[in-house]
Amino acid sequence: METMNDLATLWKADLQSQDRSAGTIKKYTQAVLHFLAWYKQKQGRPLTLQDITPITLISYRNEIHLEQRRSIPTINLRISALRSWCAWLTKERHLNIDPSSNFKLVSGAPASQREGLTNAQINALLRAAQSSRAPDRNYAIVQILLQTGIRLAECASLAYGDITFGERSGLLQVRASKGNKFRSVPLNASAREALAKYVGPKLGIEKPSIKTVSAAWPKGAEALKPIWASQRAGTLTVSAMGQMIANLVDATDGLVPQETTARTLRHTFARNYLAQYQDDVVGLATLLGHKSIDTTRIYSAPSTMLLSVRLEQLHINAYT
Q1: Which residue has the higher pLDDT, 106 or 126?
Q2: pTM for this entry
Q3: What does the CA dihedral 18, 19, 23, 27 come to, rounded to 10 degrees?
Q4: Could you give the CA distance from residue 214 to residue 167 in angstroms, rounded to a whole number?
Q5: What domains lie within the chain, and their CATH numbers?
């Protein structure tokens, strides 16, 4: 008889047959396994098909939201995974009725997670990168994330051939995008300078600059090689890159919020873009790879810091 873990494995194979991205498949599978482990820990026995009810799903969502205090993006990812799994179980006739049909996402997002970093915090993080064990590489990674807003997995998968590196302009092709959709993101001077300093020595350039590196940028078979290398000359993985950012945050001695991740850098890029180009939500959506403009509009809402300044300047603040 098939166990719930067996069914999760079969569902994973179905996701792969749909050509879902490797990142989505991994996260969805982990979410379902987490749900199974949660139920066993709570009930003292493994979950069965009969136990997958709306009440069970809602209880799980409420616990990870209120008691475990998971971030809203994490909670909603797990909810989406369980919806997908339940829909598959229903389609394959393991369940008669989909128990997740009214299983709602958690609305809203903590302001601190979508406001990004201040200029002082950005500088502190970049200083930490310059003082780290692999300063040129780590500085380049942080700058790429800050200057383009791409996701961590998208950054980790970059090869030389994904970048058009010029003296006066640059372009980054995101191939490992969410939903397997390609998009192009321009590289500004800050990103190109950081890349030149990191890539230059690999190309045998002693004093690298944007000009010298652009002339020697790898082509042909060399262009297939990944850009980011580990200290053991292997490819830097997504998890290793995420851990590197966590280490940099720790190295700032509290100057950068402890919860800062690559997602925070993505939010920082988005906030800064809209601060300068207030009406260009469509352009920002294109850069971030959002399918819906509504997803991007969240960055047009005033930040808590800005609202705080406005309230201090409010005329009624004169009454004491």
Answers
A1: 126
A2: 0.64
A3: 10
A4: 6
A5: 4-108 (1.10.150.130), 113-305 (1.10.443.10)
